[in-house]
Design goal:
There is one protein chain. The chain is of the alpha/beta class. It contains 16 helices and six strands. Strands 1, 2, 3, 4, 5 and 6 form a six-stranded mixed sheet that branches. α6 (about 65-80) packs across α9, α7 crosses α9 and α9 crosses α14 (about 320-340). It is globular and about 90 Å long.
Length: about 400
């Protein structure tokens, strides 16, 4: 390279540096944002909508009383400090913005224009409030069940789903996300979109007992479940689950308390899955029908979750760690609102935004298969339902 070429290269580098220099900010605070305290959505809307409980519930996805209780729990954690430069954003506004984001599925830029806050400020509010919602609600709304809790769950499953000794229903769903930076194909699933997986166990009241969040979209239900801390504790008998007891008055064999799942989960003495195959006997068909009556509670729980918190209706476009935080927060809020405000039956009929996780393959243990036969015998004798034969034909 001669002197002339070197001079040209040097000149091009100088020009590139000048063009890449960071531009000075046009405004310290944009004029649109300066009027937040007089024209922002929170200022003109919050006090008015509180006067109309049904409208408030539709906007914030919870009742006014539930909002106030949650605000009291969060205030010590999300209250900022006023400075000489500007007053801090109130905890009421932070919570209101976060619930709207989770409940409507809107984007940061939508909240930026309506609440007149910077996009980076909105993002920081969402991250902060979601983190502390999970911190304050996880032990209150997703506590580790005691022996008495397990017995109550089993009693309610028997009452509502006619399935004795059942302490939960398990399933997993894909949560759509925008491809995380530098993630390769880790989050790319068999349905050809990017996702992380929410694995959950629920009771018969459509409340979550346990959740596992953040597994990559390429994984399957059984792999996630067997790698979870819950499964390890379940296998090691560290969950205070009651001792096995008979389900039949004529058969004295003690039957363990079980969790029901679909074909993705391996059959053990603690997990019940349906019989596989197409040419099934009547007894096996009846067992599958009765198991599906219990297992539908987890599908309905996912439906209530997705219809209440519509952030799940679209791919979530945030960092992977915030995705996990958002999912955990929505599950905690699901239990919180379900306990205080109930649910709409229509929400249990569809699961928008979620996709099924592919089935893995796990062999049934001999002991698990024998207990499944005990349940199948019970469902065709003293535990039979008057309509079950018509439901399998």
């Amino acid at each position: 390279m001669d002197v002339e070429e070197l001079a040209i290269v040097a000149a091009l580098l100088i020009i590139k540096r000048k063009t890449n220099k960071k531009k000075s900010k046009e405004y310290w605070v944009h004029p649109l944002l300066e009027e937040r305290r007089s024209k922002g959505m929170f200022k003109i809307f919050y006090e008015d909508v509180r006067k109309y409980p049904r409208k408030f519930f539709n906007y914030a996805r919870m009742s006014v009383s539930s909002f106030d209780v949650l605000l009291c729990l969060l205030k010590p954690h999300i209250t900022g400090i006023d400075t000489n430069m500007r007053p801090c954003i109130s905890p009421e506004e932070k919570l209101f913005i976060t619930l709207r984001y989770l409940g409507s599925g809107c984007k940061f830029v939508d909240l930026h224009y309506s609440y007149r806050l910077g996009i980076s400020t909105i993002a920081e509010i969402i991250r902060e409030v979601c983190h502390f919602i999970w911190v304050v609600l996880k032990d209150m709304c997703l506590p580790q069940p005691t022996k008495e809790n397990w017995l109550k769950i089993a009693k309610d499953f028997h009452l509502r789903a006619n399935f004795p000794n059942c302490i939960g229903a398990v399933d997993g769903k894909h949560v759509r996300i925008i491809k995380p930076y530098n993630s390769g194909s880790l989050c790319y699933n068999y349905k050809h979109f990017f996702s992380v997986i929410l694995l959950a166990i629920c009771d018969s009241d459509y409340k979550f007992i346990y959740i596992d969040v953040g597994s990559y979209g390429k994984d399957c239900d059984s792999t996630i479940f067997t790698n979870s801390t819950f499964y390890q504790k379940l296998m090691n008998n560290d969950l205070q689950i009651p001792e096995p007891k008979p389900i039949s008055s004529t058969n004295p064999i003690p039957v363990p308390f079980v969790i029901v799942g679909d074909e993705a989960f391996g059959q053990t003495d603690k997990i019940m899955r349906p019989f596989g195959g197409s040419n099934l006997t009547t007894k096996k068909k009846i067992f599958n029908y009765r198991l599906s009556r219990a297992r539908r509670h987890i599908e309905c729980s996912f439906g209530i979750l997705a219809n209440k918190w519509q952030i799940f209706h679209r791919p979530i476009n945030v960092n992977l760690d915030l995705v996990s935080c958002i999912i955990k927060t929505c599950c905690a809020l699901h239990n919180y609102v379900r306990e205080r405000d109930g649910y709409k039956f229509e929400d249990t009929l569809s699961i928008p935004g979620f996709e099924e996780v592919p089935n893995g393959f796990q062999r049934a243990t001999r002991r698990g298969a024998s207990y499944r036969d005990v349940f199948a015998d019970y469902f065709t004798t003293e535990g039979q339902l008057s309509w079950q034969m018509s439901s399998i034909n």
